[in-house]
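Dear colleague,

Following up on Tuesday's group meeting, I ran the structure prediction for the two-component complex that the binding team flagged. I've pasted the input sequences exactly as they went in, so you can double-check that nothing got truncated or mislabelled along the way. The structure tokens for the whole assembly follow below. Feel free to forward this to whoever is handling the docking comparison.

Inputs:
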Amino acid sequence: MKIRQIARLLPAVFLVASVLSQAARADSPTLTNAKACRKVVDKQGRNYAKKRLKLLLSCVDKLLKCEILLEVDGTNANSCRSKAETSCTNGIGPASDSSLGKSATVFDTKTGLACLPFGISSMMNTGSGGLWYGNDATCNGSPDIPTLVACLRGEIDGRVDGVVGEVKPRASLLLDNTPLGVNFPNIPRPPTVSVVISATAPGSGVLVNPGTVNVPAGSALKFTGDATTLPCGGPGMSGRVTITIGSGPTAQARTIKEPWGPSRAALFGPYITSGDLPYTLDYKDMSCNDTVTGTVHVP
Amino acid sequence: MYKPIQMLKVTALGALLVSGSVAAAATSADLLKCQKGVESQIRGFTGFVLTKVQGCAEKVVNCKLANEIDAVDPTSCLAAASTACSGIPTDVSSSQTTRRDKVILKCGLIPFMELEQYVAGLGFFNVASACSAANVNALMDCIFTDSRCATEHQVFVIDPRAQDSLTTAGIAASFPCVGP
């Protein structure tokens, strides 16, 4: 064989030798388990974070579209809001079979299973051969893998929701105007001025006029109903107050319904331009019926 | 060579960057298009950051774990990992710039006030105030920088060894938010 032919074969020989060498020092079971756990946490963590971001932004996009069309074009938002809320509930609702719930389950299950052979103490180990989760001040007290995995997911949630608030700053108010907002406490909220709508006495049916409501620039306005004075008697929970701010076709209107209280709120704004906006509170419950008007003042 | 449409885009971007020009009130379609652009580019960018930074950290940690658990000499493994990681800071920065510019093209003709206001706007008032952004370019810089930082922190939550891995690879300074 000529030298040139031998030279051509050398790379192949080295490759075979390298493969044989790798095979000869196969990973120990502990290393295999460590790598498997590490790899699945990485992959599932990334998938979950991306999915959560996509689902939240998609939901907020739908809610935002309804408001923009109302505020700019004067398009009635009721049907749009209803459809968006249904879509959002399917996507990011608290049920385990919502898209977000399923993603969380996939993360928990796949990560938990992949890390089980490595074990919680090895995952927590902050020294040689460990995965250092003991350095995580939030999750280092987790007694077992399912708890640790759920805790890590909670941390991911916080960071992703922060990005949602940055990208869509109206997200928190849009979600808080649906029952879904309470599930996303990490989306940044603007400062809020609260107004509790009440009647002069229980069952009187006469609203107390809040008068001029001062809202600092950059703050939102939140209306809730007073559970003590607003109920008008009789069976059922049919009471409602429709709050309208602004005038003409682009006025913002939202309705809060019984049962009254802090969990049923209508949020407006935030307002950033100095000026006055008219508002109307329209109250209906059985025989009770009253309307008051006032001004939202932004200094 | 630029295609005509690309040249138009570049020209438009240049005009925006130079003048920060403001046009008439935005339509609902303009606002929704801008918002969609921000969302789409941020999602793409944060996904890119996650994949790239995690990928580097995983290469390094695998070398280190093999050394710590099986006493395998990490020298060649770490050298290969560091080489693979070395281009990531540039890749991420380029992606950030490219994607930010795409958003500016979609949002740049909307009056800044309408990007800031909540009612009949996109509500960036508090975001802009927090980072003293006075025009769309500065605002988008803020949004991309903040989102990148939040994503880098996610990498650390998922892999608490990531900071150490990036330090070993020599690129930790480019990703300061990978940490507690």
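Chain A touches chain B through 60 residues (CB under 8 Å).

Cheers,
M.
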